[in-house]
Amino acid sequence: MIRNKSVLVFLFLRMLLGITVFIHGLTKFKIGMGNTSIAIDNIGMPIYALYTLGSLEIAGGVALIAGIGVRYVAIALTILMFVSTFHLKLDVGLTDSSRMGSYDLNLALLFLSTYIGLDGKFQHINFQLKEYFQFPQVCEGE
Known about the structure:
Blueprint: H1 5-31, H2 34-42, H3 48-66, H4 70-89, H5 104-118, H6 129-132
C-alpha cells in the first residue's frame, strides 16, 4: 500500500521531465542540429547558443533524474520551453509537424516544468521504497 501518493507522483513527473529533456538534448548532438539551427539563426541568436542549450538540456535532465537542484533546473527549463514555444514554434501550429515540429510537446513540458519549479514541497525527495510503501510483515515459522 502506498502511504504518500503525492510524493510518488511528483517523483514520477520529475523523472519523466528529466528523461525527456535529457534525450531531447542528447538527440541534438547525435542526429545534428538541423531545423533547430535554422530556427535559432532566424531569431538572431548565435549558433553557439544552440550547443549551449543542448548541453544545458543534458545536464538539466541528469540533475532532474538525480534530484539535484530540482527547483532551479525546472525554472530554467520553464524559461527555455517558453522561449522555444512562443518565439520559435508558435506559427507552426499545435499539431503541424511538417516543417520543424509542432509545439504540443513543448507546451506539455512547459506546464510540467512550471509545476515542478513552483511546487517547493517535494524538492528534496530521496526515494526509498520502505518509506513510501507498507510491506506486510512476514512471520517466521513457529
